[in-house]
């Protein structure tokens, strides 16, 4: 009986960790959307061109992808933990 309560406590910790990671992923998504709005629409009045393309076109596409890669790397290296999702019943 005690072994089962330990497994439930352990599962509760896993679910707490999963919830925390999901919240940070949602915050990262909101940050990415804000970056996209600023990079794409915010730079639309700029006359700067790179390879004959307006800066907003490059920042709103390639810039967003690069920002997403940086956010993903930060999340995976700093915040996310590698855990075994199987419980005691799975063994």
Description:
Helix 1 (2-42) packs antiparallel against helix 2 (55-79). The chain has one domain (2-81). The chain is mainly alpha-helical. The protein has 2 helices and 2 strands, in the order αββα. It has helices spanning 2-42, 55-79; strands spanning 49-50, 53-54. The relative contact order is 0.14. The longest helix is centred in the first third of the chain and has 41 residues, at 2-42. The model has no long low-confidence stretch (mean pLDDT 83).
Give the structure's gist in a few sentences:
The protein has 91 residues and is mainly alpha-helical.
Main features:
two-stranded antiparallel ribbon; elongated; mainly alpha; 2 strands; 91 residues; 4% strand; 2 helices
Query: What composes the largest sheet?
Result: 2 strands, antiparallel
- Principal-axis shape: elongated
Arithmetic mean pLDDT: 83
User: What is the number of domains?
Assistant: 1
| Order of neighbouring strands in the sheet with most strands | 1-2
Helix content: over 70%
Spans where pLDDT lies below 50 across 5 or more residues: none
